[in-house]
Amino acid sequence: MQRRAQLLECATEMFAERGYHETSVAEIVDRLGVGKGVFYWYFSSKEELLAEILRGSSLDLRRRQQASIRDIADPMVRIEIGIRTSMQWFYEHRKYFALFQSAANIEPFASVARKNSDVAIADAVRHIKDAIVEGQIADQDPEMLAQAVVGVIEKLTRVYIFDRDEPADRAADATVSFCLNGLCRLSPIPVS
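Now predict its structure.
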């Protein structure tokens, strides 16, 4: 299993550096100093390899988020800690952020990226609903609010962590401030 992990890590680095289409199986195994047979022992194709990287990294992020909020009762504190944990994880794993972004525009990986995004939205919806019930957030569409929170995390991660190499705490502070202050002060949107 160590060789499989090495293939995943090497491919992740190469896909993030050069792009998925620009990286071949031959280049991955050459960098590792192994034959193609080793690759095909673990993966049937380059497509399967990237899908596994996307699923595995998303699962790792989600586990980190869940562990960080496990014993937190206050939903607004869970949202804050979830934001900070996500941004710290992306800071530590920039290559995965690059892959998440590019995979969303590559078939057949767009469906994997959408599924990962749907899970993130569903997780945020749960905490937002709890905050609405507790009166911490005005009663609004929780999915719309979750989309906004996840969108802010993604945008500020891309601009401040990925593009500008700012510290994760600085980007997280801005994200938390915007999301939590905005969420707490929103008045319901009138329904026509």
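The mean pLDDT is 91.
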